């Protein structure tokens, strides 16, 4: 490299040049060897950066799996709620069909599988559903029970059409 000429300046980098850099253009610096000689920790930043990057990626993947599990649990619970309500309506005669068959159909429409359907006392129905999303997490399960509203003051349950109870 040719250095600019100034009044009183010499040709080249001058006497303050570090030995090995610019003073001998034919000399090739062995960076790895000089790094090992001067610092025993050369490359430690790279390893540390890779380690931190792997930890961040693992934490992100864990959060994604947990969020998928939460979504699957919510879907299973919603499917169970809807299936139980539909089955309770069928048990009370409000809609046509056998309660467990209606619950199975509603669960299938919500991408869930009906795992249990129990008819209880007083036209109540308890329904269990299962939603499978990620094989690693296993299935999410939902459970719901539905039936007619409870009787007020210990009397009979309200009539289906909203009129007075018989």
From TrEMBL:
Transmembrane segment boundaries: 47-66
Chain positions covered by the region annotation Disordered: 1-23, 139-166
Source organism, top-level taxon: Bacteria
Keywords: Membrane, Transmembrane, Transmembrane helix
InterPro entries the UniProt entry points to: Rv3654c-like (IPR021202)
Record's protein name: Secretion/DNA translocation related TadE-like protein
Organism of this sequence: Arthrobacter oryzae
């Amino acid at each position: 490299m040719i250095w600019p000429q100034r009044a009183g300046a010499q040709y080249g980098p001058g006497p303050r040049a570090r030995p090995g850099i610019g003073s001998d253009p034919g000399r090739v610096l062995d960076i790895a060897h000089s790094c090992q000689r001067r610092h025993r920790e050369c490359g430690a930043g790279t390893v540390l950066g890779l380690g931190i990057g792997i930890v961040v990626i693992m934490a992100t993947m864990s959060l994604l799996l947990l969020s998928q599990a939460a979504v699957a649990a919510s879907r299973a619970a919603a499917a169970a709620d809807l299936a139980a309500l539909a089955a309770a309506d069928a048990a009370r005669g409000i809609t046509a069909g056998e309660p467990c068959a209606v619950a199975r159909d509603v669960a299938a429409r919500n991408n869930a599988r009906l795992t249990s359907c129990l008819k209880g006392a007083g036209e109540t129905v308890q329904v269990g559903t299962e939603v499978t999303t990620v094989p690693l997490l296993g299935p999410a399960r939902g459970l719901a029970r539905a039936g007619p509203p409870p009787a007020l003051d210990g009397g009979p349950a309200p009539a289906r059409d909203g009129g007075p109870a018989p």
